[in-house]
């Protein structure tokens, strides 16, 4: 049994997959982003401390990242469609069972664990299958899909507030769970590129006659899905390790600005209503940055790893300048710069990962990258908080984030240099093989 497509279609039905991934991004990451609106309601209902209540979101984020390798492994073993549908059912179960609100531990297990696992099983394969469907337009497709997070987050804020005011926090959870069932519909639309029976596909590959002139590596490059097992050996590849270290340092920084932006505005004496508008500005410019960067990367003017290095450098610069703001206007301008360049980074970093490891190992690489990157997300906010406590100024957190991003850009430069040396080495070996002639007399004539 053969795959439906020997090469990524780079369009056609692929755009249906992109729209489906756009919806999945909104119904998973955007829900996680705006879940803070339930914080006070849940805290007051159970009469718990803020630190105790915050563990709901912490468990969700942790399971989201820890479940990514499992989701990638299931994508390799079965299909992206099956895993996304499973994720939608898990996400719905987490919200629907959270509706019961039996205890705080119950909330950890439902809206924490089940919701996080549902997000992992939906988000990871949705990102992965877009890269399988596109090659030349991969950056643009990934950018459009990731923009769903921004678009839905902008809408979910007022919607969730209205649901809580009308139906209470429990009723709102149940309705949101029902909305998340649409993830299953999006999963159905994610038609597999290859045969759903991977064992039959691999059997047909092994029966290919050896003299047909096509090597196994050529088939892996042409076939969108060839890896039949999860490849843990990626951790031994230097280029993947360099990119994973970049991911850790970047994650340490990305979670810091949203955490201290509101607090910094309060310390400057900015009114609460104006402070809320900063978050709206952040969402809008983030959305614009993703789409514009995806469009530019699709032109193939700049190498994707070079583009990512530039965006990381610009983010670090904006974070270093942001603490210089002394009023609302200057703070809004620097926040806009940060949000725009953050969007450009999100739009292209998955494409760079695909370029680094190649499509045959992409599913495994995405799961491992998410798992390794999570350590930066866990370490960043506490470290920034410690620095702020020692310095006694919220600006110190932004300086820490900017400096960490500068360090992460260094690993991208090292990765690019490593890849260039590797390419030159392979080209040299190819030339040497071509220069070796089969007959000694011809080789002697070549020397003369």
From TrEMBL:
Q: Where in the cell is it found?
A: Membrane
The region called Disordered is annotated at 203-222
Q: Which residues form the Major facilitator superfamily (MFS) profile domain?
A: 14-420
Residue ranges that the Swiss-Prot or TrEMBL entry lists as coiled coil: none
Q: Name one GO molecular function term.
A: monocarboxylic acid transmembrane transporter activity
Question: Is Transmembrane helix tagged as a keyword?
Answer: yes
Identify the domain of life: Eukaryota
Q: Which Gene3D superfamilies match?
A: MFS general substrate transporter like domains
Question: Main localization of the protein?
Answer: membrane
What does UniProt give as GO cellular component? membrane
Q: Sorted alphabetically, which keywords does the UniProt record give?
A: Membrane, Transmembrane, Transmembrane helix
Segment forming the signal sequence: none
Looking up InterPro entries in the UniProt record yields: Atg22-like, MFS, MFS_dom, MFS_trans_sf, Proton-linked_MCT
Family matches, as Pfam families: ATG22 (PF11700), MFS_1 (PF07690)
* Transmembrane segments annotated in the record for this chain: 12-35, 55-76, 83-107, 113-133, 140-160, 172-190, 240-268, 274-293, 305-325, 331-353, 365-384, 396-415
Query: What membrane topology is given?
Result: Multi-pass membrane protein
- Family label: Belongs to the ATG22 family.
Protein name (record): MOT2 protein
